[in-house]
Write a structure and sequence with these properties.
Length: about 425
Amino acid sequence: MPPLISAPARRSYRRLFSLPGTRAFTAGNLLARLPMGMFSISAVVMIAGSRGSYALAGAVTATGLAVTALAGPWVARLVDRHGQARVAVPATLAAVLGSLALLLCVRYGAPDWTLFAAYALTATTPNIGGLSRARWAHLLRDDPGALHIANSFEQAADELCFMLGPVLASFLTGAFFPEAGTLVGAVLLLAGMLLFTGQRSTEPPVQRRARGKGPLRAPGFPALLAGFLATGAVFGSMEVVTIAYADAHGHRSAAGVVLALQAAGSCAAGLLYGALRPAGPAERLHPRCLAAMTALMTLPLLSARGTGSLLALAAALLVAGMATAPTMVTAMTLVQRRTPEGCLNEGMSLAVTGLLAGIACGSAIGGWTAEHAAPESGFAVPVAAAGTALIIGVAARTGKQVGSGKLVGSGKQT
């Protein structure tokens, strides 16, 4: 089998990690990022196994997600004002204490309300992916080509961690004891964050933030957030609908493996996209990536309706996932470009908040559709969400062209 990445591409990635300190902070951020795919499933298994209620487990994790969406930008703003190490370490300690408190509350039968309070405390977890991207943006500010490779690697790392995290959590909770996934996740998070923040030579300097120049007031940024919301709905709906489809065909236990293939396709595409270095600005490439994602998201729908085979669906999801990483890479590149100076971490945290909100909405809509219609019909929800993201992206680009004085399609200036 030929190698996934060509020799020139491997040399490009090697040059990226030849910069002093980059290997160490990357190792730390991967350690700290892996638990992000572990905590939710670990909490569900731990709570449902102890209290016998998936409804309670789901409510606790949903509450944590909502609090994270509110607290994330606030923590990121503190990082921008005071630096990564000064804020990320105490924020991580608070989150780890929240995880341990949840573990103890479940273990010793504390009242249900304590589970909500403990899990809400984990919302102080810094956006480690955003912290890492901020370092690359600082180190490679004069080399757009290398920054494209770094952003592609970060997206592939996201996919890898969210692919391996649930698998590791399931193994730990099943092979040892129900609290093992939460305990190991907390240890990895703290160890990884300490290693990451210990690399002070690569930490971006604190920049003065101009008064009244937050990300939400930056031109084009609100449209980006709307796009992240729609893209998150793609992810959330696809997960729920795939589980429902597998359950309807008597293969619910295989749903995790099928979804992991989608993440694997996205991970591979992220690495390849970084190596290819497509020509053109991100403003032009992003709508094209959204169009590709919309087209490829029709494959699971066609497979589910036309074949009824879980194996065929798995293959369709593997291919469909290949448009995810390029879409996210170009979107994050736009976030980096459109966020005002001095608030990059806040801008990227807001993007993640948009994704989380979209995942929650997509999960709800996908679940309702799968329950009230045929499970196969649920796969229309990710297609509709991707199409919405495409419309937003095209409208934002067209509006920017008109606003900048260009007559779209004419090449003339007004």
